[in-house]
Amino acid sequence: MNNLVEPGKDLRRRSLHEELTQTLRDLIVHGKLPPGVKIPEKDLCDAYSVSRTPLREALKVLANEGLIQLEPNRGARVTAITLQDLDEIFPVMGALEGLAGELACINISANELKKLQALHARMLVEYRENDLESYFASNQKIHEGILAAAKNPTLSSHYRSLSARLQRARYVANTTPARWSAAVAEHEQIMKYLAARDGQKLGDTLRLHLENKLAAIRQYLLRKN
After folding, report:
1. Residue 208 is part of which domain span?
2. What is the pTM of this model?
3. 15 — alpha (psi -120 to 50), left (phi > 0) or beta?
């Protein structure tokens, strides 16, 4: 159970429900609760000093996001990453990310751009140090930063309703060295077009970035099966 407890986690900083939900989401996305495993409810309650009630409320949220499946009288189980799921989600997310990129080029402020460039520089260091988990966190912040810079709440709402499943798939895709290297090169292009405020090229690159990740995850699932 020690690997389920993240250092520095304090479940009282935000609301207990929000923090517990994000903690469990992170465990699933990063593979510490892998596909197919039954959620160890008692162990998690003990690890985070919470009762079953907030834990089960968090599990309901994750079930709505498609990360777990609630089984009547049998608890909850982490869902598998399937090709059917990917074929459903990735085209929608690609369209949303492409639109976010186009709008970000119109609406991003100089300060927002500077922060994203700093994140990108940090991500490159994490890539060179082979620190996948830190790289993934910076990578996700960049995508979220582009989404925020689009300044379109409706777009953000639809994106976030699907993003948890996408994050898990992205994490799997980056585990192959060739795909990781290609993803970094694509991010260089993303930052180039964002700085140039070229919405068409940025939107196209973000969509291609997601299509390439989908292809990598397909290969991973086919090898696994």
Report:
1. 83-224
2. 0.80
3. beta
